[in-house]
Amino acid sequence: MPGPQHAKHFWVVKLESNVKPYLDRLSKMKSDRYTYESTWQQVSDLMLPKRDFTVERTPGQRRTQKLYDSTALHATEQLAGGLHGMLTPPAGKWAYIRLKGGEDRSARLWLDNATDFLFDIFSSPESSFATAAFEFYLDIVAFGNAAMAVTYKDGRIMFNTEQLRSCYTMENENGKNDIIYLCRSYRPVEMIRRFGEKNVHEKVVKAYRDNVAITFEVVQAIEPRDEHYGRGASKDKKPYKSCFVDATNKHLMLEEGFDDFPFMFARWSKRAGEAYGYGPGVAAYSEANQLNTMVEIMTRAAAKNTDPPLLSPAEGMILPLRLDPGSINFYNPDLGEPKFWQNGFQPNYFDALIEQKRALIQKMFYVDWMNLPQVDRMTTVEVNQRTQDSLRQLSPILSRLASEFLSPLINRTMFLAIDNGLLPRPPRSAQGRELAIEYTSPIAIAQRAVQANTVLQGLSIGAQLAQFDQSVPMLVDANAIFKDQLRNTYAWPEKYLRADEEVEAMKEQQQQQAAMAQQAQVAESYGKTAKNVAGAMSESGMI
Question: DSSP assignment of 234-303, as one string?
Fold first, then answer.
């Protein structure tokens, strides 16, 4: 008996020493984020009440008791919905995959098939991408930060937006968030199902067997390994490690690995040297708080005017007073008459200032850029032009989302599909090549439409000059312009376009048909000429 007990004690001590670096790093990250959380909670109260950071609430508890004006809340949802529709529309393809430096036709066809497969996953209800993406946009609009996990489980790729409250992150020297710690509460039964009874702490097993209603804090630490064997290595040698630590009992339960960083942690904008960002919600908090206070004051004042306090003599009244319609109250007229208190406050005193604040908040959430101005009559050309102008104004702000969310999302999803056999291996000409992602969302096309308009303007000038010099059109390769615009501006898939060899064969066939038609026409002309000559000679008696 003493031997096994000693061995068990030694193992626990060893595990505790292994988890100490993780718990120390988590403590440091929590300390660094303390001031952010108080700001995020204030923003949450006014703009996204379903999120909590420093407040503990019971499920189903009301979260809008302090909310008197919902302008900022609606603006948050409107901007999040606009981003969802403009960047990752659920009903269409919003990106195409290419190879940097170009590709041959076989690689192009494989990339087109891979693109179709990826967007089948993104649009599939089982993957939950549309739901996770909207929650992601809500977080990044309100708080300036959002985290989405892309994982492979039970034969399918899944997407999940993690609660920002549970995510702690750190930047590397390149400004990328490649360390993330997730803090979750697990019940004993959940821990045993997830990690197995032999891997959890003895206190968890005891709580499970005694059916104790208790939770344990579990930390999932994901960070790069200092030494690894690259993609495809065993779990303990992959580029990123994932350790599950029972923080309550200081016990390491499981260590896994990832070939890629499984999280997309994006920021709206940020200051240099800070791991967390700032969003429109943080920027608009002061205005939203002032607006909420003004509407609260007006609401209370209007309530007092509608149902004002009653001033009554200290004596001479028969209590309790009845204030219902048609009620009768008895009093002694010699001791004074009860009357309502009139404060003279006008409820519409703040109307102009309130509307000004509401308009400013909507501006800070870019609502005016996403919505067309209210004009009675506009032509189709004007509507399209105004839409493209608005989207182009918004595009520089969203460049960070492309680099920290969309590009890692596509790369992670595609490599998960290849590694797990959902996609065939790429052809030899595409292996080892770096991907280039071309976005075809409405906002991306609007941004590239500037180049298309420039080409059209150049062609218009050429058409005018051709009236004076007919050699001007010879300078323009119309086929090259057309293919470039379709592929690079509007991101048409390769299968929509015929191969160059097929086009050349069609041209040769057309030339042959034209030559044959010309020969037939010449033969017909010769026949008619011979017939006319023969007729003339017959009439003249020469034949």
Answer: -GGGSSEEEEEEETTTTEEEEEEEESS--EEEEESB--TT-SS-B-HHHHTHHHHHHHHHHHHHHHHHHH
Which run of H or E residues covers position 409? helix 407-419
pTM of the model: 0.79
Listed in sequence order, the residues at least 6 apart from 432 whose beta carbon sits closer than 8 Å to its beta carbon are none
What pLDDT does 276 receive?
A: 95
Q: How many C-beta atoms surround the C-beta of residue 19 within 10 A?
A: 21
For residue 1, the model assigns a pLDDT of 37
> What is the model's pLDDT at position 535?
63
C-alpha distances in Å from residue 424, one per residue of 114, 414, 418: 9, 11, 6
411: CB partners within 8 A, 6+ apart = 260, 435
CA distance 58 to 321: 39
In this structure, are residues 215 and 185 in contact, taking their beta carbons and an 8 Å threshold?
Answer: yes
What is d(CA 291, CA 71) in angstroms, rounded to the nearest whole number?
9
Per domain, the residue ranges of the chain are 506-543
Rounded to a whole number of angstroms, the distance between the first and last alpha carbons of the chain is 136
State residue 490's pLDDT score: 66
Question: Which whole-number Å values give the CA distances from 376 to 168, 373, 380, 395, in the listed order?
Answer: 50, 10, 13, 27
What does the alpha-carbon distance between residue 250 and residue 219 come to, in Å, rounded to a whole number?
Answer: 10
Nearest of 29, 53, 34 to residue 43 by alpha carbon: 53
How many other β-carbons are positioned within 10 Å of the β-carbon of residue 238? 21
Report strand pairing: 145-153 vs 156-161: antiparallel
Q: How much is the CA Rg of the chain, to the nearest whole Å?
A: 36
Q: Which two tokens stand for residue 197?
A: 């009874």
State the pLDDT at residue 4. 38
Q: How far, rounded to the nearest angstrom, does the alpha carbon of residue 269 sit from its chain's CA centroid?
A: 14
**Residue showing tokens 């096994």:** 4
Give pLDDT < 50 ranges for the chain: 1-15
Please answer whether residues 158 and 152 qualify as being in contact, where contact means their C-beta atoms are separated by less than 8 angstroms: yes
